[in-house]
Design goal:
about 40% helix; single chain; 11 helices; alpha/beta; Rossmann fold
Length: about 280
């Protein structure tokens, strides 16, 4: 199917799955033009099945995206002309939105990195006539840290300058050792690098009704990707970050994130905290 002179990119990735739920965040500007070039048909059945299990899946993903954007804006104030690294960026057009939102005096450069779909992403950028010299779309395996860092540095990333690292939707798929290995490459002596990430909490820690749906949702996702999804307690994440000597930790469960963003809780009320938590820290 042709759109705007190029083939729509048809993908079956978890990145595409997430985008099907959060299209409302891209209803204007470059984000809307970008999404018009992606064919989501391969993930439609899975999206429908997860929505059948619980509509909260969509709400959680929307809150995650919105909260990460909120934290980016808060952390970008700390240093002028920051570098931003979006690791395992997938298909998300977050980088496009950041170039639209932040002027050059605030945002020096953006590096979006992934092991797949980066060439196709560049083709979509060309199709929507997007060009910003600050944005670098790079292909590298983030678990191969030598390849990751050499690719970043070759593109202009400066390890001596403050950076904001976006690590969204990743830790569920990798081991604790891989997480620590990646993060150690961004540790700075003066802790001027900030990280924003999310993680899934253990379903059995949720209220009874919520935990049953969460476990069914996890089983469905794990069957789709063919591997287990990592879950953590907040204490476990804090212990991992202590190995990085991280500081300035700010943690938000879904209830806290909804309140910060909306000034009230409509979805996450009472004991309902959600399956995801979002954390920012400095390393």
């Amino acid at each position: 199917m042709k759109t705007g002179g190029v083939n729509k990119l048809s993908v079956a990735s978890t990145s595409a799955l997430v985008l099907t739920y959060v299209k409302s965040l891209y209803e204007e500007g470059l984000g809307r033009e970008y999404l018009a070039h992606i064919d989501f048909s391969q993930v439609k059945n899975l999206a429908d099945e997860l929505s059948r299990i619980t509509p909260l899946f969509r709400e959680a993903l929307l809150l995650r995206k919105r909260m990460i954007r909120y934290l980016i804006k808060q952390l970008m104030i700390q240093h002028p002309r920051q570098q931003v690294c979006i690791l395992a960026a997938g298909l998300d057009p977050l980088a496009l939105q950041l170039t639209e939102y932040f002027p050059e005096q605030q945002l020096a450069s953006i590096y979006e990195v992934d092991s797949a779909n980066m060439r196709e992403k560049q083709e979509i950028y060309a199709a929507i006539s997007f060009h910003d010299e600050r944005l670098h779309t790079l292909q590298a395996d983030i678990n191969n840290t030598h390849q990751l860092m050499s690719t970043l540095i070759d593109a202009g990333y400066d390890p001596q300058q403050p950076a904001l690292i976006i690590f969204e939707g990743i830790i569920h798929y990798i081991s604790e050792e891989q997480f620590l290995s990646i993060m150690r490459n961004f540790c700075s002596r003066t802790k001027t690098n900030a990280v924003i990430m999310d993680y899934m909490v253990h379903a059995e820690g949720l209220p009874v009704g919520s935990s049953t749906k969460a476990e069914e949702m996890l089983d469905t996702m794990e069957s789709y990707i063919g591997s287990r999804l990592q879950q953590f307690s907040r204490k476990k994440i804090q212990n991992l970050l202590s190995l990085l000597e991280a500081d300035q930790l700010d943690v938000y469960d879904m209830q806290a994130a909804e309140y910060v963003l909306n000034g009230q809780n409509k979805v996450y009320r009472g004991e309902r905290k959600g399956l995801l938590e979002i954390i920012s820290f400095h390393i």
